[in-house]
Design a protein that fits this description.
The complex is a heterodimer.
Chain A (H helix, E strand, L loop, with lengths): L1 H23 L15 H8 L1 E5 L9 E2 L16 E2 L3 E2 L1 H13 L2 E5 L3 H5 L9 E7 L2 H4 L2 E17 L15 E5 L3 H6 L18 E5 L2 H9 L8 E5 H9 L4 E18 L7 H16 L2 H10 L5 H4 L9
Parallel strand pairs in A: 1-5, 1-6, 8-9, 8-10
Antiparallel strand pairs in A: 2-4, 3-5, 6-11, 7-10, 7-11
Helix pairs in contact in A: 3-9
Chain B lengths: L18 H42 L5 H12 L2 H27 L3 H15 L3 H21 L3 H6 L4 H26 L3 H9 L4 H31 L11 H12 L2 H31 L5
Helix pairs in contact in B: 2-11, 3-4, 3-7, 3-9, 4-7, 5-7, 7-9, 8-9, 9-11, 10-11
The chains are: A alpha/beta, B mainly alpha.
């Protein structure tokens, strides 16, 4: 028994020693911690590919394409997949960004939760996932120039002729999805980084819904039957109208949610140059009209205008 | 006295004082038992067919687009290899962990017992999905701190790919459940067997390897098989990290054209067939292991 205990203690000691010895004489990789962090953009250029996360669960931003052979020459390895395995606005934008950087776009597909959580551990370089810039996400992620926006707009019943502009909705019953930014806008608490918001509707009676569509359906029952108006994403409302919903848009969008590419703040490498390069690439894509064309293709309308003029430097203070 | 073996169905016609008649009567009883078994199997089969028809009728109300399923089945089936690979690798690792865990639990040493007990409690007491998230998301953060402390080789080791994280989480989780299975299996071997082995001068390792485990394995294997079947389905949880196995492919593909029922039913059928084949293989394995009992 005593012998066994001794044996055990010495085994533990060996184990401990094994953990401490490499500090003095490192085996395998050279110590990276003591050297300045490598530049991520330089690494991307060297390996010739930009690794982008996308969750193909959100058409028309990102969805799968079945039974397509990957291109014969691709640098994407392991669980990375070449661009032709997907389709969507995010995918095309990401591919264009990679083209601007002079590298191939390779995609990995972690769940959306894992993308927004940050701490990617260098598994991928960039998220191009129509991610709304929020203060909470900015704790873990740094955002690039937005590549498009989700405009928030009011919708009323097509029979209505008492409301001419959003400000006329003061005191009216307005349907929104509960917990969304639309609710925060109506109670005057909405804050969007880099944007000054004008709260034009006073004292609205907010009616919360699980999602946007039930609110639109209640509004479609008739002017003022259950709701006087709904505040929702412009594409959602226009889509409902295109499907035959008896509604109409009221005035111009009241605010924009900016959707940008994102980079992990805790990446093992230095990401400042990558952020600058991706921002530059997105600005170039805005300037040459590529993003506007893609927006027309996937959404049937140009949602990129406000994103092009967004002042990114406002996010940094 | 009869001069030929009787084949009459009437038990009263047999003269049970005659040895030849005794044999014939035994054959009659066996024949009846066989006939009864076959009839029983036929009845059970009919119940299966009836249930299957009811299920088919119920699903026909869903108005499934069968052509769509046919066109895209190959894309979902591509995930079969990943599902099988992840399950096989994980069950192999879990078996190894479970053996060590059970030995720890049965060891007289307090540290080994504590270690094994703590492991089983931790990994049996938390959800598999949460374990997957922590291993995939949390380990690299610990690794980063360790790297900063001057052990970059250890820090890099903790950054696992999606597939590695999934296999590790499944192995650790199932290893905890299977530790208990192994413990029960090992404990079920009669103490006399150990005493006899040590009387023959065997070391404790020899006793374990040559006497205890061969007997315990026979009891453990059916339970491991059961765990393997469960794991084939639980392996779908690795889809959250973007591993393209059956569920991931079905789920993400379904969103494309809003064909949820079509794709999920297809995935369900693939899993079901997979487990039926596994059950059949396991049954054969169990029969093979039981052969030595007949001696």
């Amino acid at each position: 028994m005593k012998l066994r205990t001794q044996l055990f203690v010495s085994l533990l000691a060996i184990l401990l020693a094994a953990c401490t010895v490499p500090a003095a004489a490192p085996v395998g990789d050279p110590p990276a911690a003591s050297e300045p962090a490598a530049d991520l953009l330089a690494q991307i250029r060297e390996r010739g590919k930009l690794i982008i996360s996308t969750d193909p669960a959100y058409p028309p931003q990102s969805e799968l394409v079945a039974n397509v052979e990957p291109p014969a020459e691709t640098r994407c390895t392991g669980d990375e997949r070449p661009a032709n395995q997907f389709t969507g606005f995010d995918i095309d934008t990401a591919t264009e960004i990679a083209r601007q950087l002079g590298v191939e776009a390779c995609f990995v597909t972690p769940d959306w939760t894992l993308i927004t959580a940050g701490n990617w551990a260098g598994r991928w370089d960039l998220s191009v996932g129509s991610m709304t810039i929020t203060p909470e996400r900015m704790q873990h992620l740094s955002f690039t120039q937005p590549y498009y926006t989700t405009p928030a707009a009011f919708f009323v019943h097509q029979d209505n002729d008492t409301f001419a502009q959003p400000a006329d909705l003061a005191g009216a019953t307005i349907g929104v999805c509960a917990g969304c930014t639309y609710e925060a806008y109506l109670d005057g608490s909405l804050a969007i980084p880099g944007e000054t918001i004008d709260f034009v509707v006073a004292n609205a009676a907010v009616s919360g819904y699980e999602t946007d569509v039930p609110a639109l359906e209640d509004l479609a029952l008739g002017d003022g039957v259950r709701l006087a108006a709904v505040l929702t994403a412009l594409p959602t409302g226009l889509g409902y109208i295109a499907d035959g919903g008896p509604l109409k848009q009221l005035g111009e969008p009241v605010y924009f949610e900016y959707l940008a590419a994102a980079i992990d703040k805790s990446a093992p490498q230095d990401t400042a140059t990558l952020r600058a390069a991706v921002t530059e690439a997105i600005q170039a894509l805005h300037a040459e009209g590529t993003l506007a064309k893609l927006s027309e293709k996937y959404y049937g309308t140009d949602l990129t205008g406000a994103a092009a003029t967004f002042d990114l430097s406002q996010l940094d203070h | 006295m009869a001069t030929f073996p009787r084949t009459s169905e009437d038990p009263a016609s047999y003269d049970l004082t005659d040895p030849a008649d005794q044999n014939a009567f035994a054959a009659l009883l066996q024949k009846r038992a066989r006939r009864h078994r076959r009839l029983q199997q036929l009845r059970i089969g009919l119940v299966w067919v009836a249930l299957f028809v009811i299920l088919a009728i119920a699903f026909s109300f869903l108005q499934l687009d069968l052509g769509y399923i046919g066109d895209n089945a190959s894309f979902i089936l591509l995930g079969l290899g990943v599902t099988l690979g992840v399950s096989l690798l994980s069950i192999a690792l879990a078996t190894l962990i479970a053996l060590l865990g059970a030995l720890g639990r049965l060891s007289p040493h307090p540290l080994l017992q504590g270690l094994s007990g703590f492991y089983v409690s931790l990994f049996r007491g938390t959800p598999l999905l949460v374990q997957i998230f922590i291993i995939y998301l949390g380990l690299p953060q610990i690794g980063q701190r360790i790297s900063e402390l001057g052990y970059p080789w250890l820090g890099t080791l903790l950054i696992l790919t999606a597939l590695q994280s999934g296999v590790l989480a499944l192995s650790l989780n199932y290893g905890a459940y299977m530790t208990e299975i192994f413990r029960a299996g090992i404990q079920s071997v009669q103490p006399g067997q150990r005493q006899a082995a040590s009387a023959l001068g065997m070391s404790s390792l020899q006793t374990l390897r040559l006497v205890v485990l061969p007997q315990a394995i026979k009891l453990i294997v059916p339970a491991i098989g059961n765990q393997f079947i469960a794991m084939q389905k639980d392996s779908s949880l690795v889809s959250v990290m973007g591993v393209w196995e059956i569920t991931y492919r079905a789920n993400r593909f379904a969103r494309k054209d809003s064909k949820y029922m079509e794709m999920f039913l297809l995935a369900a059928v693939i899993y079901w067939v997979l487990t039926i084949v596994s059950e059949w293989l396991l049954e054969r394995l169990e029969k093979k292991l039981a052969e030595s009992d007949g001696r």
